[in-house]
Amino acid sequence: MTKIIKMPVTENTHRITMVMAGDEEGGLEKHVIELSNGLASRGYKVCVIAHEKYKDRLSQSINFTPVDLSKSRRNPIALWQLFTAIKASQPDIL
Predict the structure, then answer these.
(1) d(CA 30, CA 36)
(2) Residue 38: what pLDDT?
(3) CA 63 to the chain's CA centroid
(4) Is the residue at 7 inside a domain?
(5) For residue 50, what are the domain limits?
(6) What tens-digit pLDDT sequence spans the chain (94 residues)?
(7) I want to staple 51 with a disulfide (CB 3.0 to 4.6 A). Which of 1, 18, 23, 84 is the partner?
């Protein structure tokens, strides 16, 4: 049996940033969406960097930054957008 431990959410709550590189409909994407929504509902500061199509599936309390990495992860413009988005989110946990 899994025991759920509720951590107190304080002013010093860590900023959590999650990145999804693809635009597919698989288990990883579902997991990131559910985990992000769950953390946000508990008061954590969550930022998701992903393809635009995922925005509507995330809680409005989540800071969403659209970056399309699905076509080429070697695209220098997309990588620069990703770098800039991560830097702007100032994550404690990435």
Answers:
(1) 10
(2) 95
(3) 8
(4) no
(5) 15-89
(6) 556 656 665 665 789 999 998 888 889 999 999 999 999 999 999 999 999 999 999 999 999 999 988 777 788 988 999 999 999 999 999 9
(7) 23
CATH classification of the domain holding 27: 3.40.50.2000
- Tell me how many domains the chain contains: 1
Q: What residue type is assigned to position 75 of the chain?
A: N
Indicate whether 85 belongs to any domain: yes
Report the C-alpha gap between 73 and 79 in whole angstroms.
7
Buried residues in 72-92 as b, exposed as e (16+ CB within 10 A): eeeeeebeebbeebbeebebe
> Taking Cα atoms as reference points, which of 38, 1, 2, 33 lies closest to residue 18?
33
